[in-house]
Design brief:
This protein has 396 residues and is of the alpha/beta class. It has 14 helices and twelve strands. The chain binds pyridoxal-5'-phosphate.
Length: 396
């Protein structure tokens, strides 16, 4: 039995998505910009997907710009707003300290170009306080970027309150909803934001397909130069099959989100309670109430996370330490560090993330093998024997 509990890294595609991609690859191969029949056929596929993605976040199809994933959507939001604001004298960007690297490293790149940047701290709950934003924001702030749900601990941020503060100061608000879309209802209008990032592969769609939702009227510059695709907002021939898969995944997500939220939430709680009960020295990281329903991040006292990850993998259970992109670096998670957790918790934590195909049997199997694995690793540490890590297995 192989168990996949790493849905926050990526998800298996739904069969409907695989079929849509295959069908479109075969039957609608045209260039969506071409005037002839083949082009119009491809354009119709893109338009249908655009409507589905817009509906998932309660947006208008004209507000959706397709990108090559969440990373590009985040880059577009931040660099695009920065480029559009430069002439106005606003040269300050704010993000939270627990953002994904797609946001953090974009801010770093802009700070090298002379932008002032501020990272908002979080407390031990892993939630950004609106008060901290009030202290940091000013007349120079062009954009505030705070993720909707965190990828490592799942905490949901108070985006509506943060947006109100950003807008009071004339700044735009971006939220990276890559880890919330498909897991909980995401309503861009209710959140009040100006820009919202999505990525298809986090909710059973294909990799390399994402979107930036841009509220009508928002001032933003394209970041790619080229043709007039996506109404002059994102140059490059549309990846029609991937966009079709994204649209299908968005439709499925919209239809299933309420049921899945409950079903997956029950499984996550069963897993979490099972681990806390059967493995001594375990603690959940981050607020347990204000979380997406599929994620739990647990520290295992006196166990190195990478060793436990490998031991679990050898038993057929796939989990992760922090975010996949930083796995293998053996760097403690920047998210847990920002929460002020001590080293024994930042270095000993595993993320279990569940999803569409997760089952009770998988949860019970994981809970049944964990106590033995943890005890074995602890006894090796006690006897002073080091656990060899195979470098090939360290990669996320
Ligand atoms: C919160 C968050 N933002 C952005 C991304 C990047 O998305 P993509 O993998 O589509 O580039 C990820 C993926 O791990 C993520 O978790």
């Amino acid at each position: 039995m192989r168990v996949y509990f790493d849905y926050n890294a990526t998800t298996p595609m739904a069969s409907e998505v695989v079929e849509a991609i295959a069908r479109v690859s075969r039957d609608a191969f045209g260039n969506a910009s071409s005037v002839h029949h083949f082009g119009q056929q491809a354009k119709a596929v893109v338009d249908e997907a655009r409507s589905a993605v817009a509906a998932l976040v309660n947006g208008d199809p004209s507000e959706v710009v397709f990108t090559a994933g969440g990373t590009e959507a985040d880059n577009f939001a931040i660099r695009g707003v920065a480029d559009a604001s430069e002439a106005t004298g606003r040269k300050h960007l704010i993000a939270s300290a627990i953002e994904h690297e797609a946001v953090l490293n974009t801010l770093r790149a802009l700070s090298r170009r002379g932008w002032r940047t501020t990272l908002l701290p979080v407390d031990e709950t892993g939630i950004v306080s609106p008060e901290r934003l009030r202290e940091a924001i000013g007349r120079e702030t062009a954009l505030v970027s705070v993720m909707h749900a965190n990828n490592e601990i799942g905490t949901i941020q108070p985006i509506r309150e943060l947006t109100a503060i950003a807008h009071e100061h004339g700044a735009l608000m971006h939220t990276d909803a890559v880890q919330s879309a498909g897991k909980i209802a995401v309503d861009a209008r209710a959140l009040g934001v100006d820009l919202l990032s999505l990525s298809a592969h986090k909710f059973n769609g294909p990799k390399g397909a994402g979107a930036l939702w841009i509220k009508r009227g928002t001032r933003i510059q394209p970041i790619l130069t080229g043709g007039k695709h996506e109404r002059n907002r994102r140059a490059g021939t549309e990846n029609v099959p991937a966009i079709a898969g994204f649209g299908t995944a968005a439709q499925l997500a919209a239809r299933k989100v309420a049921d899945q939220q409950e079903r997956v939430g029950r499984l996550r709680d069963r897993l979490e309670e099972g681990i806390l009960r059967s493995v001594p020295g375990t603690v959940v990281n981050g607020a347990r109430m204000t979380r997406v329903p599929n994620t739990t991040n647990i520290s295992f006292d006196r166990v190195e996370a990478e060793s436990l990850l490998i031991a679990l993998d050898l038993e057929g259970v796939a989990v992760s330490t922090g975010s996949a992109c930083s796995s293998g670096s053996l760097e403690p998670s920047h998210v847990l560090r920002a929460m002020g957790l001590p080293a024994h918790r930042t270095q000993n934590s595993l993320r279990f993330s569940l999803g569409l195909f997760s089952t009770e049997e998988e949860v019970d199997r994981t809970v049944s093998i964990l106590p033995g694995l943890v005890e074995k690793l602890r006894s090796l540490t006690r006897t002073g024997r080091s656990v060899e890590l195979n470098p090939a297995q360290q990669r996320g």
